[in-house]
Write a structure and sequence with these properties.
By secondary structure, the protein is of the alpha/beta class. It is built from 21 helices and 26 strands. The chain has a 6-stranded mixed sheet with strand order 11-16-15-14-12-13, sandwiched between helices. Strands 4-3-2-1-10 form a 5-stranded parallel sheet. Bound molecules: beta-D-glucopyranose. The site of beta-D-glucopyranose has 8 residues, from loops.
Length: 743
């Protein structure tokens, strides 16, 4: 067998693999299905990790990795496996990817019906598993820019670089809404607001996948994840139990997915956790009634990692693996990210033969999978994206701009832009790892040997390029060990930029026991300030780690929300005033480690123990370190607004006038909130309903006319339906409050 395979591989004949079927209609899927055996069908529903299909010792971090023809033949031809994912331990060059996909295509062409493999990858902030690819800010950084057009562009460019790597499917975007800052996947989301996350996610989806049913060579299929309610674990830890009332599920966790499905998303990935005691992978109400019935989703639903296995060996709702397979497929799963054995298709076949899973369920899933393959043009063979676009100047310019726009100026006592060349220090100053975080060259993004393939500058390097001097503080987030001039008894008259925060982590590896950073970091900040320096803090962290006890020590403070490869350059540019930082927090930054109250809380959530009986404020115990939407500028702004009319039938029209009243050009984002004064369900004190964004030169003014559809003022009522209730409302635009009435 091995000889035959080598022959196939060495002839490298079938990169453009298959001849049939050529058309892209549902009938073509039907025709193909009529020729498929049950073995082929259950194989289609199987996804394996590439780790199982590589030559040699796959555990080596830096070794070159090659597909193993024998293993691939066994998986693809003998077992009809329909999909493969990811990398083993590290990223590959475009050339390595090309060789791997050629081998896979050549072997797929030996399958009875020559069905091509659907390769999927975690392309999370750019094509992060291809060496030298453009690395953009993570979603939390994109959300801080409040820029849906930029999100679309990042989606488009990531799609191109992923196609160049031979891959047509990304496990992105994350549409979980991060309402608990303890959660380790906080930075993978668009933040705390369901509304902002819906806008960002729909736009990114259109960018990455395009807007046509058939996806062209420059786009790839998205996978919205992790459907549904993944971020709401009550422990704050990854993949742990969530208890979510239906009203809450519909109000906070479903709309992001609904918006991206409306935008055409072809695939979704399922939440690994359980909701109200039912693992989502076994939940037919969520996977079928809601996803298919209500949202009208016609695409493919893939499990998350090993989640059918986990139904019996982790969640323990199935008595064995076979029971778990039947449970998940009957609930509505189309494809199992197995990821590393071939028991799944065997057991699924047995389930069908024993009547545990109806054949109709198999046919439904296979149809969805094949339709995605056809929509992606996989049966046409060679995709020809323009190689010159890989990490091209345009993509790098987008990544730099996105990194700049992600930065949030939290505090500034007239210290920034820097008037004096500073010293630079801190554990996150001299590495790209904390700027890129997880999903960067490797899963955890923490290997220094891999971190700098993009040849980007760290904060320290970018600051030194502008005349500053870097002094190590120990280069470890748990250490404070000053060096060089940083050890001087007095730092009087000096300005010190301190980069501090989190190292990289991904998924459960990032679970934490409390919100505080390692004590050494607070000691460092206090110690430098107490020796007389002017202190400029730069927080590099994927979630709002507690700074309550050191906030007063900062003369200025910049938050860098995982800005990617260009983060160093962007941070240095912001500190030196080469541009005006404009990011706004897409989450509430808590002051106290146990008080995580979101911006859209209720009156009672924030009355505080000392509140009297009037209970009319809802602010007494809502004292975050920084509010949702907070972000300063180097220039000054004035914001005024008028309502075109105050009684709303169809839409509310508000004119927002924004003027740059200072001396520096800048971008300004003005969130618009509403408050429902009386509602059938306890209303929030603040709901996001729109925002205005402008770029203005000093002295310039712009009037933005916002049209806010009536549906934006809806709530999920007592029968768990979205309704717009007539009544009195308030609209908050900057400092101004307007009354209006919903008719
Ligand atoms: C993660 C997913 C990811 C998948 C494949 C899982 O552990 O939860 O977000 O797409 O692995 O790497």
């Amino acid at each position: 067998m091995r000889n035959v395979l080598f022959l196939v591989a060495s002839l490298s004949i079938v990169w453009t693999s298959c001849s049939s079927p050529e058309t892209h209609t549902t009938d073509a899927v039907g025709d193909l299905m009529s020729k498929m055996s049950l073995d082929e069908k259950v194989g289609e529903m199987t996804q394996l990790t590439i780790s199982q299909l590589l030559e040699g010792d796959k555990d080596e971090y830096l070794m070159p990795q090659r597909g193993d023809s024998t293993k691939l033949y066994d998986a693809l031809v003998n077992h009809h496996v329909g999909s493969i994912l990811n990398v083993e331990s590290h990223d590959y060059t475009v050339e390595q990817w090309t060789a791997l996909h050629k081998l896979i295509a050549s072997i797929s062409s030996l399958k009875p019906n020559k069905i091509p493999v659907l390769y999927g990858i975690d392309a999370i902030h750019g094509t992060n598993y291809t060496k030298g690819a453009t690395l953009y800010p993570h979603q939390i950084g994109q959300a801080a820019a409040w820029d849906t057009v930029m999100a679309k562009t990042i989606g488009e460019q990531t799609a191109i670089e992923t196609r160049i790597s031979g891959i047509p499917w990304a496990f992105s975007p994350v549409l979980d809404v991060a309402r608990d800052p303890r959660w380790p996947r906080f930075w993978e989301t668009y933040g705390e607001s369901t509304v902002l996350a819906s806008w960002m996610g729909a736009s990114y989806t259109k960018g990455m996948q395009g807007t046509e049913a058939e996806i062209d060579d420059n786009h790839i299929a998205v996978s919205l994840k992790h459907f549904l309610g993944y971020s709401a674990s009550i422990t704050g830890k990854d993949r742990t139990q969530a208890w979510i009332a239906e009203r809450q599920l519909r109000r906070y966790y479903l709309p992001t997915f609904a918006a991206a499905i409306d935008a055409g998303a072809k695939t979704v990935m399922i939440n690994s956790g359980d909701i109200n005691g039912i693992p989502v992978h076994a939940n037919k109400v969520i996977l079928t009634d809601i996803l298919r019935g209500e949202l009208g989703f016609e695409g493919l639903a893939v499990t998350d990692w090993a989640d059918i296995h986990y139904l019996f060996n982790r969640h323990r709702v199935a008595k064995d693996y076979k029971d778990a397979v039947a449970m998940a497929i009957n609930a509505g799963i189309d494809m199992s990210m197995v990821p590393d054995d071939l028991d799944f298709p065997r057991l699924l076949k047995e389930c069908v033969e024993e009547g545990l899973v109806p054949m109709s369920r198999i046919n439904e899933s296979v149809r969805r999978i094949l339709q995605v393959k056809m929509d992606l043009g996989l049966f046409k063979g060679n995709v020809k994206p323009d190689l010159a676009l890989f990490n091209c100047d345009e993509h790098k310019a987008t990544a730099l701009k996105a990194a700049q726009n992600s930065l949030v100026l939290l505090k500034n006592n007239h210290v920034l832009p820097l008037k004096k060349t500073p010293m630079v220090t801190g554990p996150t100053a001299n590495s790209l790892i904390p700027l890129n975080g997880g999903w960067s060259h490797s899963w955890q993004g923490d290997n220094p040997g891999l971190a700098n393939t993009g040849k980007a500058r760290t904060i320290a390097e970018a600051m030194e390029a502008r005349g500053a001097t870097y002094y190590s503080s120990g280069e470890d987030i748990n250490v404070w060990a000053p060096t060089g001039r940083l050890s001087m008894a007095s730092l009087e008259g000096e300005t010190v930029v301190i980069a501090f925060g989190e190292w990289s982590y991904c998924e459960g590896v990032g679970d934490i026991e409390d919100m505080f950073l390692p004590a050494a970091q607070y000691e460092m900040i206090k110690n430098i300030k107490e020796r007389g320096a002017t202190v400029v803090g730069v927080i590099t962290a994927g979630r709002p780690r507690n700074i309550r006890d050191v906030e007063n020590y900062f003369d200025a403070l910049l938050y860098a929300p995982m800005p990617g490869d260009f983060g160093g350059e962007a941070i240095a540019g912001a500190l030196f005033g080469e541009f005006n930082p404009s990011g706004k927090l897409p989450f509430t930054y808590p002051r106290q480690p146990s008080s995580h109250v979101t911006f859209d809380h209720r009156v009672a959530d924030a009355m505080g123990v000392a509140a009297g009986t009037s209970g009319d404020k809802g602010t007494a115990s809502f004292r975050p370190q920084f509010e949702f939407g907070h972000g300063l500028s180097y220039t000054t702004w004035s914001v005024t607004s008028t309502l075109a009319y105050v009684k709303v039938n169809k839409e509310l029209v508000v004119n927002v006038t924004i003027s740059n009243t200072g001396n520096m050009a800048g971008k300004q984002t003005v969130p618009v909130y509403y408050e429902d004064l009386v509602a059938s369900i306890v209303p929030s004190v603040k709901n996001l309903c729109a925002f205005a964004q402008v770029d203005l030169a000093p002295g310039e003014k712009a009037v933005i006319e916002l049209h806010i559809p009536r549906e934006r003022f809806a709530l999920v009522d007592v029968s768990n339906k979205w309704v717009v209730e007539p009544g009195d409302m308030k609209l908050m635009v900057g400092e101004e409050v307007h009354d209006f009435v919903i008719k």
